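can u pls check wat happens w/ N-carbamoyl-L-aspartate
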Amino acid sequence: MIARPPLSRWSYRHVLDLAAFSQEDYATVLELASRFRALPMSGPRRLPALQGRLVTTLFFEPSTRTRSSFELAARRLSADVQSFSPASSALAKGESLLDTARTYVAMGADVLVVRHRCAGVPAELARDLEAAGCRTAVLNAGDGLHSHPSQALLDLFTLARHFNPETPTLEALAGKRIVIVGDVLHSRVARSNLWSLTACGVDVVLCGPASLLPDAFAQFTHAPPPGQAQDLVAQRGSLRIERDLDRALEGADAVMTLRLQQERMKEQLITSLEAYHQRYGLSHRRLERCGKSVPVLHPGPVNRGVELSGELLDDPSRSLVEEQVRNGIPVRMALLYLMAASEPASSAAGLS
Ligand code: NCD
């Protein structure tokens, strides 16, 4: 049993993007994820919170971590879980994505966890389902280059836990300097992290070649989030670009590196993998520039020896990559709990 979290603060039916999240929203997710993470790892690990609920994963793009992490999270909350595979589905017979989704809604899906290679598809689906009178929640598990909310939230939780293991709150993050290096252009993870980190008072330094990090990213969080007249976050952390990795690392508190997403590149955007590693790859030696021992994050999958050296990836005293994977489960439990349990039919059983 864990104490009932403060659901009254949660106002979202769908989680599509983090641009409009307030500091209170981040605090709610971190608090709940901490409680789920603290549950004993042995003995009965299931909470009855989502008993009788159905979580369906609709992944139109490959995934190793995100999909299985969502499915495990749903099972740990006692939800039924159903997963859709495009290759063996009626999509191949020409069924539309909306009709496919409605098929799962007709089977009783309470939450659809959706990944798609095109930006905006989960949001369109949420709109179409609402227009059709369905109460099903849509959770974006990565759409094109746009957004990957659960990944950024698990990154935030991992960083907060690293800085303050006892109390992984927003206060643990404020004023930290975090470097994001690599293929920012093709990264929905980086875009979501820019919203979440700056909202929590982190100063972000972006690093990468101009072909993978256009100058415009320096203004990414300056205008109000899309569709909003005003930013709900009064004072965001700063954001700047530093093209030289050694300079970017000076004084950093953590470094996040991103996969080179060659499958999304329409043309050659780097001269060679060797040259890329030389300039933007992380290694123990390179991290000495930070002036202190700092952790390294990567959303995975990793190109070993490209974004970071194999030795660094395998060094548990520096690499938080496996910790990110572990934290994905309590963070996704938190999201599923908040979404499914805040619906009127909620049976938040087991949380007193
Ligand atoms: C990321 C993604 O799919 O956006 N991976 C993930 O979800 N862990 C990043 C990537 O593919 O490089």
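Confidence is low (pLDDT under 50) at residues 345-352.
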